[in-house]
Amino acid sequence: MSLADILPNDITKISYVGLTAARGTREETVFNALKNEPWLDSIDATEILDRKMVIVDRDMLFQVMMIENVSKSKLSQVDDMKTNLDPKNQRVDRLKTSNIPSKSYKVINEVNIDDGQDANTDMTNNFAAQKTVYKLAIQSRSGKIFFAINLKPINWASSALGAKIIIRKGAIFNRGMFLLNENDVMFLGGMIRSWNEDKDFKVMDYLENKAKEENDQMIALKESRKRKR
């Protein structure tokens, strides 16, 4: 089995891990991460959540099941995705429901490249990217699911589902979550084709369900506070 065989496949279905490669190569790094014991494999979910600020002691291979932008509301992301799929789905009340003071708005169809607006847009987009936080649902070779969150910007946030990453020795794990700095993760790419069929709809369904869960929890919390009064 080669690296080319690993990237497009489900790592939970790889049974043979007696792999070797030339020392110091990228392939050897991947093979070693795959062969290393999966993270907290013999520990149940309750105990995993009790593990605080643990330093990862080995490289490990994971596959990405979902990438969620937690810097932006879930419903807003769903709205954006629906608009991209079909502009006629765009909410007409976006400006009305925003916090922008009421005034007339003009649709801009052209941009004068001499006035520096493009440069300002690029600066704004770069600044936003620096502030964006992503939450990844990732799966180990044994099938256990964990989460990871970036402490520094990542440039592969739009990767395909099933993409492979290596979480490196020295990363921090806290209460079910890997806290990733730039040097704590190696992005390998790849994808699992079946996971990416109708990907946008799967992501929208995930975000809508998560938004409903959070709303239900908020309602339950408010009801609980009312009863205590």
UniProtKB/TrEMBL annotation:
Start and end residues of each RecQ mediated genome instability protein 1 OB-fold domain: 50-200
Alphabetical list of Pfam families matching this protein: RMI1_N_C
Top-rank taxon: Eukaryota
Matching InterPro entries: RMI1_N_C_sf, RMI1_OB
Name of the featured protein: RecQ-mediated genome instability protein 1
Species the sequence originates in: Nakaseomyces bracarensis
